[in-house]
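Revision sheet: C-alpha coordinates.
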Amino acid sequence: MTTLPLRNNEGFLEDADSWTPKVAEEIAAEDSIQLNENHWEIIEFLRGFYKQHEMSPPSNRLFVKAVKEAFGDDKGNSIYLMQLFPGTPAKTACRIAGLPRPTNCL
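Predicted:
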Protein backbone atom coordinates (compact mmCIF):
# COMPACT_ATOMS: atom_id res chain seq x y z
CA MET A 1 0.00 0.00 0.00
CA THR A 2 1.40 3.35 -1.01
CA THR A 3 0.95 6.57 0.90
CA LEU A 4 -1.94 8.47 -0.61
CA PRO A 5 -1.44 12.14 -1.52
CA LEU A 6 -3.06 14.80 0.66
CA ARG A 7 -6.86 14.68 0.51
CA ASN A 8 -9.70 16.77 1.89
CA ASN A 9 -12.29 15.57 4.41
CA GLU A 10 -14.38 13.98 1.62
CA GLY A 11 -11.44 12.03 0.19
CA PHE A 12 -10.80 14.24 -2.85
CA LEU A 13 -7.17 14.92 -3.73
CA GLU A 14 -5.96 18.39 -2.79
CA ASP A 15 -3.81 18.42 -5.96
CA ALA A 16 -5.11 16.70 -9.11
CA ASP A 17 -1.52 16.45 -10.39
CA SER A 18 -0.61 14.09 -7.52
CA TRP A 19 -2.93 11.43 -9.00
CA THR A 20 -1.62 8.15 -10.41
CA PRO A 21 -3.41 4.98 -11.50
CA LYS A 22 -2.17 3.36 -8.27
CA VAL A 23 -3.77 6.15 -6.24
CA ALA A 24 -7.02 5.55 -8.16
CA GLU A 25 -6.94 1.85 -7.27
CA GLU A 26 -6.46 2.62 -3.58
CA ILE A 27 -9.22 5.24 -3.46
CA ALA A 28 -11.55 2.83 -5.32
CA ALA A 29 -10.71 0.04 -2.87
CA GLU A 30 -11.94 2.28 -0.02
CA ASP A 31 -15.36 2.08 -1.72
CA SER A 32 -14.93 -1.68 -2.37
CA ILE A 33 -14.59 -1.01 -6.10
CA GLN A 34 -12.25 -3.24 -8.11
CA LEU A 35 -11.34 -1.17 -11.17
CA ASN A 36 -11.72 -2.85 -14.57
CA GLU A 37 -11.45 -1.60 -18.15
CA ASN A 38 -14.95 -0.05 -18.00
CA HIS A 39 -13.98 1.99 -14.94
CA TRP A 40 -10.69 3.07 -16.55
CA GLU A 41 -12.52 4.21 -19.69
CA ILE A 42 -14.66 6.58 -17.61
CA ILE A 43 -11.73 7.67 -15.40
CA GLU A 44 -9.62 8.53 -18.45
CA PHE A 45 -12.60 10.33 -20.00
CA LEU A 46 -13.05 12.39 -16.81
CA ARG A 47 -9.37 13.29 -16.64
CA GLY A 48 -9.53 14.43 -20.27
CA PHE A 49 -12.70 16.42 -19.55
CA TYR A 50 -10.96 18.10 -16.61
CA LYS A 51 -7.89 18.91 -18.69
CA GLN A 52 -10.04 20.42 -21.44
CA HIS A 53 -12.54 22.33 -19.27
CA GLU A 54 -10.45 22.84 -16.09
CA MET A 55 -13.34 21.54 -14.01
CA SER A 56 -15.13 18.31 -13.15
CA PRO A 57 -18.58 17.79 -14.69
CA PRO A 58 -20.64 20.04 -12.36
CA SER A 59 -23.51 17.60 -11.75
CA ASN A 60 -24.51 13.99 -12.16
CA ARG A 61 -26.87 14.91 -14.99
CA LEU A 62 -24.14 16.68 -16.95
CA PHE A 63 -21.72 13.82 -16.19
CA VAL A 64 -24.17 11.32 -17.72
CA LYS A 65 -24.74 13.62 -20.71
CA ALA A 66 -21.00 14.03 -21.34
CA VAL A 67 -20.43 10.26 -21.14
CA LYS A 68 -23.36 9.70 -23.51
CA GLU A 69 -21.88 12.14 -26.04
CA ALA A 70 -18.49 10.42 -25.81
CA PHE A 71 -19.53 6.74 -25.66
CA GLY A 72 -23.17 6.50 -26.73
CA ASP A 73 -26.40 5.40 -25.04
CA ASP A 74 -25.06 2.08 -23.70
CA LYS A 75 -22.60 3.80 -21.38
CA GLY A 76 -24.13 7.27 -21.13
CA ASN A 77 -26.90 6.38 -18.74
CA SER A 78 -27.36 6.56 -14.98
CA ILE A 79 -27.80 2.81 -14.46
CA TYR A 80 -24.52 1.88 -16.17
CA LEU A 81 -22.58 4.60 -14.35
CA MET A 82 -24.17 3.73 -10.99
CA GLN A 83 -23.11 0.10 -11.42
CA LEU A 84 -19.52 1.24 -11.96
CA PHE A 85 -19.51 4.05 -9.40
CA PRO A 86 -22.13 3.42 -6.68
CA GLY A 87 -23.73 6.26 -4.77
CA THR A 88 -23.44 9.47 -6.74
CA PRO A 89 -21.55 8.36 -9.88
CA ALA A 90 -20.09 11.77 -10.75
CA LYS A 91 -18.82 12.32 -7.21
CA THR A 92 -17.44 8.79 -6.80
CA ALA A 93 -15.82 8.74 -10.25
CA CYS A 94 -14.24 12.19 -9.80
CA ARG A 95 -12.82 11.20 -6.42
CA ILE A 96 -11.25 8.05 -7.91
CA ALA A 97 -10.03 10.02 -10.94
CA GLY A 98 -8.25 12.46 -8.61
CA LEU A 99 -10.37 15.42 -9.66
CA PRO A 100 -12.06 18.14 -7.59
CA ARG A 101 -15.50 17.48 -6.20
CA PRO A 102 -18.25 18.29 -8.74
CA THR A 103 -19.74 21.61 -7.70
CA ASN A 104 -23.42 20.59 -7.63
CA CYS A 105 -23.11 17.06 -6.22
CA LEU A 106 -24.52 16.45 -2.77
